[in-house]
Queue: 3 jobs
Job 1
Amino acid sequence: MALTLYMTPGSCSTGIHILLERLALPFAAHVLNLPAGQHRGPAYLAINPKGSIPTLVLDDGRALCEFEAIALWLARRHPQAGLLPQDPVDEAQAIGLMADVVGHLHGQAFTRVFTPERYLPPAMADALAAAGLHAAWREAVVAQGREMAAAAFERIAARLPPGIEHEGFAFGPHWGVADAALFYPEFWAEKTGLPLPARCAAHLQRMRAQPVVRQVLAEEGYR
C-alpha cells in the first residue's frame, strides 16, 4: 500500500507535496475539490474527521491530518534529507516557525482573506444582506485578514537570516520543513497582491528557484 496524499492544488497541501517530491517518495495524489465540498463528504470524513487538508495516509493505513504532523513525520522518517536542523534549539525554532505559519498566518489571517464568511454566523449574514451591508462587511473581514497577514510576515521576516537575499534558507544552507511551510503563504501573498517584506520576498524567490518546487507548481497547474 503506497502513501496517499489528499490535497488541493494551490492550497496548504502544496507544501507537503513539495516535501514528498523532495524526498522522491512514491505516493498517490487524491485531489479534493474544496469549493464543491468534497472535503465534507462521508468518505473523506471517515479518513479525516476535521475535513481539512492535507491528509497523508501511510503505508499501514494510518492517517496524519495536520500539516505540522505530516512534515515532522517525513523529516524524522527520512533524517538523511536534513529537513530539520541538527541543532536542538534550531530544530525547536523551525517547528515553532512552522506552527506560527500554519496556525496564525494561514489559520487566522489568510482564512479571513479567502473565506470571510467563516467569521459571521449565517443568521447575521442574512440580516446584513437584507440591509445591503453584506458586501461592506465581507470587504472589512478581508481587509482585516490582509492586515494580519502583513503583520505576521513582518514578524516572520525578522526571524529569517539577514543574508537570505543572497544565500541560504530559514535555518541554514538547505531548505527544510519550515521553508516548505512558509513558501505556500508567500505564494498566496504574491497571487493576491500582498506586498512581502524583503526577506520573505527573497525566500519566496529562492524557493521558486528549486527544481522540485518548479516541478510541483507545474504539476499543480501553475506555469
Job 2
Amino acid sequence: MKYFFIGRMFRLSGLFVLGILIMTSCKKDCPPISGHAVLVAGYEAMGEINYAKYWVNGTEITLSDGTNDAIANSIFSVGNNVYIAGTDGGPVYWKNNIERRLPVISAFDLHANSIFVSNNNIFVAGTDSGAVYWKNGHEVRLDAVSPQPYYPPGKHPSAANAVFVSGNDVYVSGSDGHNAVYWKNGVETTVAPGPAIGQSIVTSINVSGSDVYTDVVTFGGGRVIMVCYKNAVEIFGALGWSTQVFVTGSDVYVSGEIINDFSNGGAVYWKNGTVVNLTPNPPPPVDNYPARANSIYVAGSNVYAAGFVYNGTTDAAVYWKNGVETPLTNGTNNAIATSIFVR
C-alpha cells in the first residue's frame, strides 16, 4: 500500500493471532521465484529499526540490512521476476532482492509507495516533497509547484499513492492539497474535493478497459469515510478506511478496515459494496483499529488479502485466502503486511 505516508499504515495495532508460524529465511541473493506464489510485502520491527521484508508462500526474505529504517510498500511480479517498492533511507525499489535507489531532488517527504511493471518498464509512484513517479529510474513530477523545504501548518502537499499502467497510459492516484485526485499521463483529475478541515485521498487506482476505478478516503469532522468511484462517479461507500481497489470482470473489490464508531474496527473487504469480514466485527475491545486489510488480489475464484492483526501487545503480519488467515510473523515483534500479489 499504499495510504502509508499519512501515518495510518505505520500504526502498530491488531487482533490476537492464533498459533505460531515457523518460517525459514532466504538469503538476499536467492534467485527469481518460479511457479505459483503468494507474494506478500511488508516490514517487521527489530528493536528500533524496521526491516523491509517479503514472503513467498510464507517463506520470509529480508531485503534491508538494518542500516536505515526500511519498509516494503508494494509488490509486483512479471514472469519469474519480483519487484518491490519501498523506503530504505530514501525511496528505492528491489528487483529480485537487489536494491536500486531512486533519484530525488529534495530532502523531504521521500517515499516509494507503489510499483507497476509494463512492457519491461518499471513505474514507481511516491513523493519527493510532492507527488512524483519514476519510470525506469527517471523522476516525473506531478505537482504544479516546485518542491519546498517545509509546508505551513494546515497545508497538505501533493502525494502519489499508487500507479497503474494500461496500454500507453500511466495513471497515478493520490492527493493534491485537500483533494483526492489522479493523474493520467500527467493531467490531473479531481475525484472528490476534500473538506475544509481534513483531507480526501485516492489510496489506489485500477483501470479496466476505458473505466477508471478509484477508492477515496476522507477524514475530518470526527469520522473516516471510504468511497469507491467509477469514472469519478460514486458506486458505493461506508464508514471505513479503504486501501486498494481491484477489478476483475464486472466485480469491484476494495480492501480496508471497517470503522464502527471511530474507535473500533476490523479487517474487511467490500465486493460490489457488500462488506466481507476478515476478522470479528465488532472486534474485541483490545485497542483502537485492531486489524486492517492493506491490500487485495483476486485470482480466479480465490480472494486474497494482506494486512495485520493485533494481539493486545504487538501487530502480526498476516494474509487471508478466502477468509482463512495465515500468519506470516509470530507476534513477537511488530510487523505489518502492506501488499499482496498472486501468480
Job 3
Amino acid sequence: MGEKYTIFEWYSIFNQPNIIFYYRGPISSIVLRDISKFIRDQFKDNPLIFRRIFAIYMELAQNILYYSAEKIISQHCQDSVGIIYLIQDNNDYYLCCGNLIENEFLNTLYDSCDFINTLDRKNLRDYKREQRKAPPKERSKGAGIGLIQVALTSRNPIYFTHRKIDEGHSIFSLTIKINESEMVPIITYPENNRQNI
C-alpha cells in the first residue's frame, strides 16, 4: 500500500516539462508574493500573457484564502491550505487550483459556475455590476465577483469538478484555460463545464 505513495511517484508526476509551477500548502502573504514574483520572472518577455495569468492567479489564490476548509497554524497565524499550479500545453496555459470545502456549499458553487459559463462577455460585465450592487450573500467575501472576473479575463469557460473526501468535505477544483494565440490586452472597465470524478 505504501509503495503507491512514495516521493518518487510524486516527483515523476510533477517533474514533467509542461508544469511551470506547482504549490500545495498554506496560502500566506509570503507565498502569494513569491509565486507572483515567479510568474513575473517566467513571463517577463510576454507582458500580455503575464498580466492575464497573474490576474487569474490572484483571484484563484484569494478564493483559497477565503474559502478553504483546511487551515494550518503557522507563526501564530491561521492560513488556508490549497493547491495551485500552472501547466503549458502547446500554446495554451491552464491555471488550476483546488481546496477542501464543506459539502453543504457544493451546490451553490456548481450553480454559480454553471450560470457564469452561460454568459457572453457583455452579460458577464452586466452581471458583475449587478453583483457589486447586490447585498452580500451568506459566507460571501467576493468570490462570486472573483469568478466572474476570471471568466472575463480568461475568455474561456470555468472548468470545475470535485471529489468527495468524507461526509462533510470535498476537494473542489477549478481549471482556467488561457489561450496565448488569442492574447489581447486586458480591458479595465470603469466600475472598477462541469466534470465529475
